[in-house]
C-alpha cells in the first residue's frame, strides 16, 4: 500500500484512523486504508500529468503532430492568369503572328481577373495554374529558331527592363512541365542593351534553365555575349512533378540556381558586366517541327522577381 507520495516537494501521508473501540474501530481503519490507496493512485496520476505539463512549458496539453508546410496561395481556376498572378511587370511573347514577328501582349492587357488569355496562355481549369502551351510549329523571334509562349520582364513605366549587374536580382517560380518533346527553357536571365559605352549589342541569354523529357534539369550559361553555351546538370524532377527554382545574379558576378532548396553557384564571364539584363519565364520549347499538336506545356503555380 502507498503510505506516502512525494511529488514536487509535497508529501501526502495516509489519513490516520480515528480512535474507536472493538470491531467498529477495525472496520473504520480498513475503510481508511482503502480510501488512502485510492487517493494515492489519483495523486500519482495527477502528479505525472503535471510533470508532463511542466516539461512542455507549464501547461498540461496534448502535443499536436508536426504541422505540414504552409499551403501555396489558392489559385482561382475561373480567373485569367492575370487574376492569379501579378503580371503588371511582364509582357507576353506568343508562338503566333507573322514569321520573325510573333504576337506581343503588353502588361496592361494581361492584368486582372479578365485579362488576356488564349490557347497558348491560359488558366488550367482544374488547379488554376498559369499555363503556357508552345507548339513546335509556332512562330519564332528573329534571333531564334524556336517558338515560345513566354513572359519578358518589364519596368513599371512599361519600358523593357534592363537592369545592371549590381545588387541581388532573383527570379523564383514553382512550376511543373507536363509535356515536352525533348527539352524546354523555363527561366532565363537574358542580355539586354549595353550600359557601358562602346559595347556591341548582344542577342544572347546570360543563362537558361532547361527541363528535359527525361527529368534532367540543366543550367546553360553563355560563355560570352557573342555566343557559345556550357551546360551544367543541376537537378532531376519527374515529368509532371512540381518543383521550385530560383535563379539569381549578384553584383560580383555570382550566378546561383536553387532547386527545391539546394543551391549551386557559378561565375559570370566578365564580358557580360557592361550589359543590362532582364528575366524571362515560361515555355520556350527547344524543338522545331510541323505538327501543331506536338509541343511543350508548362504550368506555373508561383512567380516572383526581386531586385
Topology:
Blueprint: E1 4-7, E2 10-13, H1 22-55, H2 81-84, E3 90-98, E4 101-105, H3 107-110, E5 121-123, E6 130-135, E7 149-153, E8 168-179, E9 183-194, E10 205-212, E11 216-222, E12 229-236, E13 243-250, E14 254-259, E15 262-267, E16 275-285, E17 295-306
Antiparallel strand pairs: 1-2, 3-4, 3-7, 5-6, 6-17, 7-16, 8-13, 8-17, 9-10, 9-16, 10-11, 11-12, 13-14, 14-15
The biggest beta sheet reads: 8 strands, antiparallel
Just give the CATH class of the largest domain: Mainly Beta
Mean pLDDT: 84
Number of strand elements: 17
Helix percent band? 10-25%
Q: What fold name goes in the CATH topology slot of the largest domain?
A: Jelly Rolls
Computed over alpha carbons, the radius of gyration is: 33 Å
Question: Helical segment tally?
Answer: 3
The oligomeric state of the chains shown is single chain
Structural class: mainly beta
Order of helices and strands: EEHHEEHEEEEEEEEEEEEE
In percent terms, what proportion of residues is strand? 35-45%
The CATH architecture category of the largest domain equals Sandwich
| Integer count of domains | 2
